[in-house]
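question for whoever is on the cluster today: can someone run the full assembly for these? two chains, 946 residues total. i dont have access anymore since they changed the login thing
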Amino acid sequence: MKEEYGIVTTEIIEELQEIVGAKNVIFEDKEKLENYAADEAGEIFGHLPEAVVKPDSTEQVSKIMQLANRNKIPVTPRAAGSGLAGAAIPLYGGIVLSMERMNKILDIDKVNRVAVVEPGVITNELCLKVLDEGLMYAGYPMSIETSFISGNVATNAGGGKVIKYGNTRRHILGLEVVLPTGEVIELGGKFRKDTWGYNLLHLMIGSEGTLGIFTKIILNLVPCAGRTVDLLVPFGDIETAVNTVADIIVSAGIIPVAVEFMDKLSVDLTTKYLNTKIAFQDKAEAYLIIQLESESKEGLENLYEKVGEICLNNDALDVFVAESRTDSENIWKVRQEFAEGLRAADPYASLSGDVVVPLSKVPEMMREIKRISEKYNMRIPTAAHIADGNLHPELMKPANVSVEEWPKIAEEIYDEMTDIAIRLGGAGSGEHGIGFIKKPIFLKTKLEAELNLMRGIKKIFDPNFILNPGKII
Amino acid sequence: MKEEYGIVTTEIIEELQEIVGAKNVIFEDKEKLENYAADEAGEIFGHLPEAVVKPDSTEQVSKIMQLANRNKIPVTPRAAGSGLAGAAIPLYGGIVLSMERMNKILDIDKVNRVAVVEPGVITNELCLKVLDEGLMYAGYPMSIETSFISGNVATNAGGGKVIKYGNTRRHILGLEVVLPTGEVIELGGKFRKDTWGYNLLHLMIGSEGTLGIFTKIILNLVPCAGRTVDLLVPFGDIETAVNTVADIIVSAGIIPVAVEFMDKLSVDLTTKYLNTKIAFQDKAEAYLIIQLESESKEGLENLYEKVGEICLNNDALDVFVAESRTDSENIWKVRQEFAEGLRAADPYASLSGDVVVPLSKVPEMMREIKRISEKYNMRIPTAAHIADGNLHPELMKPANVSVEEWPKIAEEIYDEMTDIAIRLGGAGSGEHGIGFIKKPIFLKTKLEAELNLMRGIKKIFDPNFILNPGKII
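^ ran it for u. tokens below:
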């Protein structure tokens, strides 16, 4: 498609400078442009934009899109660049539209329990701000400290607390959207239910910046639920850990806030990076981190005693209950630094594993991952939002594979795992999205009838295919 | 558009009989066809289909759609016909596709906490069935005893428990859909998160039978939450009742399962119909019905004491705590029989009121309803899922208005209320949908840019505009 696109000429640069001010347009300066070339999938996937533009209002975004649409210049919206599927990479050059300056929390509305934010607000900044008001933003993902809210919306981010609070989708009540044509529409609002035409709001969520640019976001807030406690539970083997999850949720009917899984390898790599140790690292093949929540102290005690009992009945090696905030932070740190731990051990570690399967199929998926690991003689550390059936099997580059051939080999293995997840009744991405890295396997595994609908939708929203081309579809 | 449609000829009837069997095709028999002409919006809006077809498999539905698409015959899917916006009415004649025979619960999968059902399952049948397994289907609307699950999906139904459990959308994990062309696609699955292409699943939910026909539905189930209690709280005036809701949710941070509102008029009409009385009917101008839920008996007591105190601090006339299942049933009966009560008092009562506004705007919306009631000298009994800001202001035909002119006058008043709701930051339908009754005001109040996207989407899914024409867009 590339030859059909216009290029960012000097005249266009001048027009962009006119719209956002000269200091908010980057061009020619390769070093600065490189900061906008890649995302967390790795520099190896990067591509230089011709220009980076930093608007600070809806009006400016609209003008930029009108200009780009007239001149058929590709525009790639960029939030924090913390994505793992390459969705923010300007594959066809053109303009990167960075939302970094649109970073204001516009409104915290206690009565309606909503926040209204600009797209460039860092997730944790909002979380902390609403906490002051006794409220919680429960749509945050694992990358809470770096990701922008708009990026979370674009990928329908997940994270650790989906089993109880749902993914980002559940917490998005409204969006102001600039369409690829520059038109501005408002979807949803400060209300929690409506049946008022086709739900374009939900279509936008998870569209990875290919259908529209979010310039204002209305978020659902929930009352702080009171007390939580964190448990760290080591197991002698993986399957027992997995089965325990079903026992907690299904047999006991307890919905924790989070149930995170880490295998031995991922714990070893992460604790090494953190220069720490956690209990039973010599014996444990798998760990669960369980967060529970209750209205009252007694309720919470009752809950973690029940859960602890279930774990021990399932041959957990022990159950550690965090007794302080520091304890909790230490437990969660190991999970949160998973990606960093892998990268520290292997700078070429590929972090694109993100399959989702029905809970009942998690043991089989785990066995398949083990089989693949042995088949390719490759280390595949795996962490998981296990109660959601969302697994992150990551790939460590074997010594005998060259850096050049590695992305292709990694992709093939991810494709194999995706095929298995789909065969087990799951999907190829739980929360990272398709971007362009998962696009080939996505196109291969979807029915043509469904792909045609998606292609048709893309064309309706973006007749010139200028918004984030090369992604998803 | 009518002249462009084909008619249901004898040949087509024969083909339909071939597909579903002769006894599952109704034609020519006006009396039988009339059963499929209207919905709960009233017979006055009805329109006769040329034929009614009752498939019992996805394959049959697909064949019917292929036949209809080839011959450009309008097809109107029909669930239980309990809708209130006319979405199931065959405006252009053609075929009514009744899902009544596809009424099997296919699978209750405890480990994955999902049920898989056919479209014609009555909502309460599923609710009771999963209750036997210690699970709850929380996506049910107020019309639980009559509506079909597929109808709930088509309207993204709401009901009383949205504030805690969300509307039907939140509980739909997957759909098998027959497209207007007869193609079959599967969306979602037995998992709770994914970012795997444009979210066609959510686009289908709330599309009121205009984009596809649901032939299989995968539903989220939640563990039974334990104990609930119901409170009945009379207030001396409406605004105090409304303000109390914000105090409970916002100031105290308590999310009840349900907070229902009824004004004096709606209570009077419903209790008259039920031949009963509830407390303080002489003095109370408004009632709240509040359902609370907790893990434990103590938690529940603690909760209803807090809520009771908040109510009394807000000048509630009293707080009645249901002490038995019978008590609870008696309280809820008054709310559940609201529509019947109105209809009994006035067979021409119009039940299309369904605006939604931000919680903070409920008092203003209530004042506007009162103003309109006085302006037109018309009784407007109002019930509301008030914690969601979803109000049902219904219209009683004044004696001096003729039956013939009534629908037009009612529509004008609903339009006026819709305009106000939208001005207050809300929407024209919280849960009933647009159908064709709300279509004019929907088209009038939406931006052309957004309508064009919706029209484009409709065309992508249904190039010949045969599926439920005349609805929404």
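summary bc i know u wont read the tokens: Chain B touches chain A through 89 residues (CB under 8 Å). Chain B has 16 helices and 18 strands.
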